Amino acid sequence: MILLIEEEVLINDKLTEELDTIILAPGSGKWKFSDDPVDKI
User: Could you tell me how many helices (H) and strands (E) the chain has, helices first?
Assistant: First the structure.
């Protein structure tokens, strides 16, 4: 679900793991999928 008025991410740890994401900088919202190229943010 995407809320246009929300300023924070609304996913939990389990979903993050299921999507196979890597959190790079949680404060600024930078993340990537584990199979993305090394230089992609």
Answer: 1, 2
> What is the torsional sign of CA 24, 29, 30, 31?
positive
User: Hey, what's the torsion of the CAs at 24, 29, 30, 33, to 10 degrees?
Assistant: 80
Q: Residue 33 has what pLDDT? A: 93
pLDDT in tens, 1-41: 566 776 666 678 888 899 999 999 888 888 899 999 988 77
| DSSP-H helix ranges across the chain | 13-18
Residue 14: Cβ within 10 Å count: 8
